[in-house]
Amino acid sequence: MKRARPTARPSARQPALPDATISEQGGVRYLHLDTPWIQGAMRIRQPDKLELEYIQRMMAWLLLRDPDTLADTRTLHLGLGAAALTRFCHSVLRLPTTVVELNPQVIQACHAWFHLPDDDERLHVIHGDADQHVRDDAQVASADALCVDLYDHEAASPALDDEAFYQACWRVLDDGGVMSVNLFGRDSSFERSVQRIAAAFGPDRVACFKPTTDGNTIVLAWKGFELPAREVLVQRAETLASRWPLPARKWVKLLSAWKPTTSVAASPASARPARKKAPTA
Fold it and tell me: Which of 110, 118, 134, 207 could staple 114 via S-S, CB 3.0–4.6 A?
């Protein structure tokens, strides 16, 4: 499998939002935004299963939360995609879940094709701009888990990736909160993005996964606590794996504290991971 493309967000020079389209193969339904590149996936007979590996790792914030306090966790998702994280947090973990999505067609497609529930006392889907949402003073300390999956229309770089945005994300998190961010670990922009996250959260409060086979690298950043000892992470992983179908034991092996580099080397275009196109019959 090649790289799964994150949720798209248009730039200021691209006011028109792409159309949401659907494809299916092998029992899996895929979301696209006017291109063959995959924006999200759902196994039709197991809609609550996290189908894509990088989406599974977006849930690794669970490792940094005390399992005894999980029921009180307020989750915020920037970018809806195929609603995989939303379904899992709302329907499986049964947590308060807020989602911000710019493209109304994505919201409509998720209701029609990807089992996105209607809003209720635990779910609130907002048609709006993620940047404006996190910069709103009313949102300070409003979330305990923040999942960021936002790329520009061509999936060339994160749509929201400056230090001010990550500082706003830090403000949105309450003490004890954790952010997970989807980046392209084999892309030349990766180290710059992590440096910006570290500038907002602190260099000792950032950890990174190894890249998936698709090239996606999930970065975790946290607020108000130190990284738990490995023994604690191992025990939490055991608890998570026993409760839910999550590869939490593998997460502990693949996660390591971020170590800053002195310079950021540009990668040749050929080193970038290939984007995943729609499956062909």
Answer: 110
